[in-house]
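Quick one: structure for this chain?
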Amino acid sequence: MAVHYCGLCRRSAFTGRRHRYSAGHRRRLREALAQLQEATAAAREAAAAVADVASALRRYDPAEHDGRVWCPCCGRAVRRHGRRGGLALLHAGLLRHLAGPEHCRETARFWRENRAEAALRERCLVPAEEYERFAQALEQALAEHQRREEERILQMAADIREAERRQRETVQAALQLQPEPELCAEPSAYRLPAGAERDSPCGAEEPGPSGMQIGPDSAWLESGKVLTFIGYQETEGKGNVHTGAKPPWLTEEEDGSKQIGPSYEEFLKHKEKQKLKKLPVERVGANFDHTSQTNDSWLPSFGRVWNHGRRWQSRHQFRTESGKKKKQR
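Got it. Here's what it folds into:
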């Protein structure tokens, strides 16, 4: 018996074409056709109500309008909705597929191979005349939507121009009501009180080197108010960078012997001690005596090494310590 692959069940059948009459295959066929008929009915209802622009067009949303419908006849997923710019055309993609000649041929082959009911075939197809009416109504809906959008944009532009006009009129009215400031032609013509002369726009000094005040204000002295003069502050070289002092990384140390923290040599010695603590105590050279006097005929004590003299004595020391450890065990 030849091996037959069923695309609807997605498995190979070793009973040949008799698999089409099995209960599992018929059940899957009914489920697939029911889903396709439901999607086709919803698309045809949307095509009948396409005259209403609100029901045919939506603002495009990828999460909502990128869905697909599985077509068992063609064996592929079909986009449910179409797209035109930033608008989603509801059910346009599925209707275009159902009315196409390729879907019509594949539907006839699918019905013939799977021995489906002939009465259900028309429910999975869309006539070409019906799709043509849907396409024309959809174009009219798009034109109507574009006209409404242009009217809305023109209205918004008119509102913006009206708001700008009102704003200009308000500013002009405020400028006309505001009196013009009088110029100070002759300071001797009128004098302000001693206390208010400092706040006058004519008597105020301009900022800058030429307008800097050296001594106490004469207006305050005439009014009888006493000011305490604490002298000029010399802050050069002191304070912080905002008062004119040098930053700490540019100042030179006065005392060269002053040192913060350990020196580099002390740090290296400390690091070497830390390394020695991690080594075993009974290693070769652990008790090396750096202070012993040496010459050409005598070698220093390297510690824990035996051959002659001191090192021979360290051999006995090593054996003694090893014997003590064995006794303790």
